[in-house]
Amino acid sequence: MTEKRIYVEQRPQGDYAVRRPNSERASDVLPTQSEAIQRARQLNNGIAPHVERVRHTSKGKPDQWRKP
């Protein structure tokens, strides 16, 4: 099941990478998180991607994952 997962991660440049686990290169890089989530769904047959948290909240840290 791991090979079906896809992730949306924020890059140091401020844009967002869509990638599969253990990949060396991103499948796509987009300027906004929303666009990256849409692209990840296209690449993964409509299955929701795992999205990196990019803001601090009282319930989570940025190094945790969520489903949109």
UniProtKB/TrEMBL annotation:
Cited InterPro entries: DUF2188
Spell out the residue ranges making up region: Disordered: 1-31, 46-68
| Pfam families xrefs | DUF2188
Spans of biased composition, class Basic and acidic residues?
A: 17-27, 50-68
Q: Which domain of life is it from?
A: Bacteria
Q: What is this protein called?
A: DUF2188 domain-containing protein
Q: What is the lineage of its organism?
A: Bacteria, Pseudomonadati, Pseudomonadota, Betaproteobacteria, Burkholderiales
